[in-house]
Amino acid sequence: MKLKLKEVKARAKEVEGNFSDVDDLLAASEYEAGRFGVIPVMHRFQREELKLDLSEEKLMCHETGNIVTPEEFLVYQPSVSMLDMLYNVCQKSGKTVEPNVVRDYDIYEQLTVCEAFKKKLKPMPGAKEYVAWAANWKQAKPGRCFVAVSSSQLRRIDITLKAIGVFYAFDAIVSAQTTGFEGEAKPGGYRPWIPPDSNLYHCVNDYDGEPKPKPNGRVYSLACQVTGTDPRKCLAIEDSPGGIQSTVNADIGLRIGCTASVPQAKREERREQLYDRGAHWVVDDIRDIPPLFE
């Protein structure tokens, strides 16, 4: 639902809550998560539990419908959770693995990714400049807030924002998942992560009893709830069609898509997908957003 530039700027003037996705919008994280977490853990699971080589196993990308192998995850970056992938290969291999064992591999992937992020994660182009602008924007008028809104676990979001040097700017961190885990990547070696500040960290699981990842709109509704902002006076920035759909489901007033994480040759296709899902405006660089507020 593309709006005219004049109307986008008019809505921007009314914004009180600036809500930003994290993965592949602020941090170049999905590729790194696949490289250091998803693919190695998938191979380990296949080798240790299924005793099969399923490197060519086909998985469906929930968001695009593409049929991909685990390695192609690095290219397509499908919205498929680690648990979905593990249960999928179990089902198609005809083998049964105890749920607690599958869960251990899922948590192992989470822990592996978090450790890799601490050492290797980089910000997306323009992310630091945009966050600096957002920090100044919120300070210019009482009642404004800047919030990180993600489908990742809270601990991963926390590590991501700190690794790329933008944690300082956020008034709240809201996850559609659980708090996540810390400890050693082995059965019995991990424990739930306890956020250090209950006023800053919030996850859907604590409020509703179970995760509700995007495109479910609950994570954005929770962001409005904990900050006391009217969704119609909020801006949400997303890089994926599913993310934009979640903003529509939460009735967010200004919805902007960003194609910076998509290869140049596929940007027009992604732009159309974002508009089809309900984006009001789409930019190729997150640094193109501040001028909309001028």
Topology:
Layout lengths: L4 H9 L3 E4 L9 H21 L8 E2 L6 E2 L4 H4 L5 H12 L5 H22 L6 H13 L5 E6 L3 H10 L8 E4 L5 E3 L6 E3 L8 E3 H5 L9 H10 L6 E5 L2 H9 L4 E5 L8 H11 L3 E3 L11
Parallel strand pairs: 1-4, 1-9, 4-5, 5-8, 9-10, 10-11
Antiparallel strand pairs: 2-3, 6-7
Helix pairs in contact: 2-4, 2-5, 4-5, 5-7, 10-11
Descriptive account of the structure:
The longest helix has 22 residues. β6 and β7 form a beta hairpin. Helix content is 43%, strand content 14%. By secondary structure, the protein is α/β, with parallel strands linked by helices. The protein is globular, with a radius of gyration of 19 Å. The protein has a seven-stranded parallel sheet with strand order 8-5-4-1-9-10-11, sandwiched between helices. A two-stranded antiparallel ribbon has the order 2-3. It folds into two domains: 196 residues, Rossmann fold, CATH 3.40.50; 90 residues, no CATH class.
Low-confidence stretches: 74-78
Strand order of the largest sheet: 8-5-4-1-9-10-11
Instruction: Name the CATH architecture of the largest domain.
Output: 3-Layer(aba) Sandwich
Based on helices, strands and strand pairing, what is the structural class?
Answer: alpha/beta
Question: How large is the radius of gyration?
Answer: 19 Å
CATH topology name of the largest domain: Rossmann fold
Count up the helices: 11
Amino- and carboxy-terminal Cα gap:
22 Å
Quaternary organization:
single chain
Following the backbone from N to C, one meets helices and strands in this order, namely: HEHEEHHHHEHEEEEHHEHEHE
The domain tally reads: 2
The dominant shape is globular
Per DSSP, what share of the residues sits in E-state strands of 2 or more residues? 5-15%
Helix content: 40-55%
